[in-house]
Each structure stands twice: as C-alpha cells, then as structure tokens.
Write a structure and sequence with these properties.
This protein has 203 residues and is mainly beta. It is built from one helix and 13 strands. The strands form three sheets. Strands 1, 2, 3, 4, 5 and 6 form a six-stranded antiparallel sheet that branches. It has a five-stranded mixed barrel with strand order 9-10-11-12-13.
Length: 203
Amino acid sequence: MIGLMLLFAFTPAEALRDAVARQEAVPAADVEIGPLGTLAGAPAEAEWSVRLPDSRLCGRVPVVLAAGTHRYTVTAPITVWRELPVASAAVGPGAAITLQTARVPCTLLRGETPVDPTQSWEAAVSIAAGAPVTQARVHTTPDVAKGSNVRIEATAGALTVAAPGQLLQDGFSGQKVSVLNLATRAVLVGTYSGNNIVTLAAP
C-alpha cells in the first residue's frame, strides 16, 4: 500500500525528505536523499505530492513524485539516521556485549531489529566495535550458564528434599531447565528459581 503526502517544497528532493521524515518519525535532518536522476520538464518551484510505500524506507526505494500535470516514478536512494545501541568494543561469539549509543544509518541494519539496551546480551557472531547490535546477532545473557552447579529442591508438604545438580542448558529465572542430579545421575526438568536453585514440581 502507498501513502500520499502533499508537501510545499521548492524541489522534489526536499518534498521527499520531508515525507520520509514524517513517515519514519524522525527529524528531517536525519534523512538523506540521494540523486533522483533527471526529472524531465519538472517545474522549478512547485507544490509536490509524494507517494511512499508502507515498507521500510531505506536504501533504494520506489516512490512517486508529482507536481501539477507532471508525474515521476523513481527509485530514490534514502538513508535514515537513528540513535541506536552499538558495541562499544569488538566481541566474538559467546562474549558479553557492552553497549553505547551512536548515530547509525539504516543501511547498516540490513532490516534487523535493534536490541533493547536495558537488557544484557552476548554475541552470537563476531561484532565489530561501533557496529549496531541487533536481535539477529545476539543471545540474551542467561542468569546462570550451562554446566553451572546448582541445588535441586523438591517440596512435598512441609518436607523439602535437596540434591546437588548441574545445569544441562543455560538457565533463565522463571523458565524450565534441564538439570543432572549428581547423586543419582538422573536428568530432571525443573524451574530455575534464581540463586542457583532449580525447583522441581511437587509430585
């Protein structure tokens, strides 16, 4: 679907810039429009209408520009800049990522979604210093890592039985996790409760 915006601008590039800024909800200063090519017969000053696709406005984007009886369908080079989380230092797979904020062009995102900077993340792939950190390149940092020693607890009424265990996968608070009972060598499934404790469901 294509949206129509009517802009008062002297040039089609200015009209396109303002339309992209509105649709992307960023200041016009954060939008760059590359060469639009030759618009044969375009008026020197005009009231331009701009039709934009509803899809992501980044890279080479098909748009429609019109002024009076003149109508042009062009592929416009569009770059939108945003303040996004980036890696403050280069990291390899499995390493914890330290984030900072930087102004990043949309072309570096490759359609990926930036991470939530309030959470902790570890790299799934190598990430260069200053590169945007996106959900496709990371894993959520677990509360406790696979292989960690934990305490397995099972409660029945007033009785709680405990045994030493070892996690068979990363643990996240409140989520199910597989654990090896080191006393019996049995593999069990419980809930990681925090503080290195795995709680088994009551029998």
